[in-house]
Amino acid sequence: MKAAQASTTAQRARRGEQLALWRSAEREPIGAAAVLLPGFAAALADSIPALLAPILSAAPLRHMLTPGGQRMSVAMSNCGAVGWVSDRSGYRYSPIDPDSGRPWPAMPGSLQGLAQRAARAAGFAEFFPDACLINYYAPGTRLSLHQDRNERDLTAPVVSVSLGLPATFLFGGERRRDPTRRIPLSHGDVVVWGGAQRLAFHGVAALRAGEHPATGCCRINLTFRHAL
Ligand code: MD3
Ligand code: FE
Q1: Residues 133 and 212 sit within 8 Å (Cβ to Cβ)
Q2: Statement: residue 124 has pLDDT above 60
Q3: Beta-sheet strands, E only, within the chain
């Protein structure tokens, strides 16, 4: 009975993903190698916050310090073999949560599977995420323009899953001063960033206050990475 229910949920997720792929001829190119998959995670999205609860109780959200000593506006945690950390000595991936001294919680198989299917749908057949960064946005939280370049193999994509309140993603070019495009991201949207777009400057505009049934007053973004 339990197994039958579990496979039904998984089947529903696959069907939702297939529909999402068909619906809008479904690959909206943002740039040469960034693919927006609107609603790709819709079937799983409502259940992800419950999946994150035990992870966030073992590795609570925290505001890390930038190398310059500024407290980040986004609260973060991680699951997976390694997690992204920042402090006065720099940005890096670490197998240990510096706040607890213990390994990060494991990445749930259902999330890893979702990220792999999204990567495959965007043309990345082989994607083995070993890190999932959990970003928590309260109203007013923003993420300033930056590049993600701490991953060893920059040919691997980054898969982003948006949950809860909508946000405006800012997508720039290869130089910080390049103009940015504003891309709305909603609950259940997935973006796969790879290839030519992998080192683009990007950020998130200040989150507008609101209420969402899945997350309450906030937005959560998961980014799956092959870090090591
Ligand atoms: C484009 N997160 O965690 S996800 C980050 O919504 C980050 O929390 C944002 O930027 C968020 O580093 C945006 C989309 C994203 C993630 C990684 C990228 C876009 C990217 C790496 C390269 C290019
Ligand atoms: Fe980023």
Answers
A1: no
A2: yes
A3: 28-31, 34-37, 75-80, 83-87, 90-94, 131-137, 143-146, 158-164, 167-171, 181-185, 190-193, 202-204, 219-225
**pLDDT, tens digit (0-9, with 9 covering 90-100), for 109-120:** 999 999 999 999
Q: Which domains does the chain have, with CATH numbers?
A: 2-225 (2.60.120.590)
Measured CA distances, 163 to 1, 2, 96, 98 (Å): 30, 27, 26, 26
Of 183, 190, 192, the C-alpha closest to 163 is 190
Average pLDDT over residues 123-143: 96
pLDDT tier at 196, thresholds 50, 70, 90 = confident
DSSP-assigned letters across all residues of 56-116: HHHS--B-PBPTTSPBPSSEEEEEESSEEEEETTEEEEESB-TTTSSBPPPPPHHHHHHHH
Q: What is the rounded CA–CA span in Å between residue 53 and residue 68?
A: 31
In the block, tokens 């691997």 appear at 156
Q: Which residues line ligand 1 (CB under 6 A)?
A: 133, 135, 143, 148, 158, 160, 169, 191, 193, 197-198, 200, 202, 204, 221, 223
CA-nearest residue for atom 3, ligand 1, is 223
R_g of the chain computed on alpha carbons: 17
CA-to-CA distance for 204 and 162, rounded, in angstroms?
Answer: 12
Residue from 79, 137, 148, 151 whose mutation best tests the ligand 1 pocket (most atoms within 8 A of CB): 148
Q: What residue has token string 């299917």? A: 117
Which pTM was predicted? 0.92
